Amino acid sequence: MNKTIAASPQWISVLILLCSWLLGQIFATETVYWLGLDFSPEMPIWWQVSLAIAMTWCLSLPSWWLIINAAFPAAVFYTVELNWPPIVFMGALLVLVLSYGAIFLTRVPYYPSHPKVHGLVEKLVPEGPGQQFLDLGSGMGGMCLHLATQRPDCKVFGIEMAPLPWLVSWLRARFRHISCVFVRGDYQNYSLQNYSVIFAYLSPAAMSALWEKACLEMVPGTLLISYEFGIPGQLIMPTYSTDETGAAALYVWRMGSNSILMPEQLSD
User: Fold this and answer.
1) Listing from the earlier edge strand, what are the strands of the sheet with 240-241?
2) Each residue of 45-68: pLDDT tens digit?
3) CA 54/CA 149 separation, integer angstroms
4) How much helix, strand and coil, in percent to the nearest 5, is found in the chain?
5) What is the pTM of this model?
6) Which domains are assigned to the chain?
7) DSSP character for 128?
8) From its phi and psi, is residue 37 left (phi > 0), alpha (psi between -120 and 50) or beta?
9) 3-state class of 123 per DSSP?
């Protein structure tokens, strides 16, 4: 894949949607003219979907962009056909932007970790006072709230870029009187050096940059934990499996070490 495309697939996808929309209008008109078919309002949309699929495939974008670029035009068309009041669409757009607008910058969508993962991560936090835990992309605060409740001796922090999930997490902590700190911002601009354990549930696109940042900033002996996503180029094995199939796992590194840690090593 071209390096420019690999670095900015979200913007390439926007261009694909715009180009396929324009060509879809032209092709639909030409189809009616040359084949003598009756014009249908759906015809430009299905041309756009077909062209978006072809462009995405030709540019070798990851498979999930193929699904997004195919589904988005059809979803917009049929949603508009519902003829709901404009305020409904405006409200839905506002919620989506506040929750997922940061994806175009971070390439990390919001998806919460399973409560079972919270318990597993809790076991990995070293015993004793002075521990500081940071959740990168803390979402609505599930992981941080659990850990702050179960480990009051540990200082718990979460950082989240999307405004709406951050606000929800902040309100949850205030109303439940749980002592944890939620910061709104981009973790790429946030120092990692003061934390003994850092947890990340991000996306494959973000893991290489996270590893570089962790190697530069985290103190030797501290733990970096990633749920579900490994780090390209690292010879790693999961320390835990969160289901019987082993499809989702926790990866744990002790910084300054050359290998992933197995569970029995974490207490060493």
Assistant:
1) 181-184, 155-160, 132-136, 197-200, 223-227, 249-254, 240-241
2) 888 888 888 988 888 777 767 888
3) 50
4) 50, 10, 35
5) 0.67
6) 3-83 (no CATH), 115-265 (3.40.50.150)
7) S
8) beta
9) helix
pLDDT of residue 4: 46
pLDDT bucket at 267, cuts 50 / 70 / 90: very low
Distance of alpha carbon 161 from alpha carbon 191, whole angstroms: 15
Q: At 78, which amino acid appears? A: Y
221 to each of 151, 173, 224, 260, 266, how far by Cα in Å? 20, 30, 10, 12, 10
Q: Please report how the helices 43-58 and 9-35 are oriented relative to each other, as an axis angle in degrees rounded to 10.
A: 130
Structure confidence at residue 133 as a pLDDT band (50, 70, 90):
very high
Which two three-digit tokens encode residue 212? Answer: 């570089």
Considering only CA atoms, which of 104, 92, 102 is closest in space to residue 137? 102
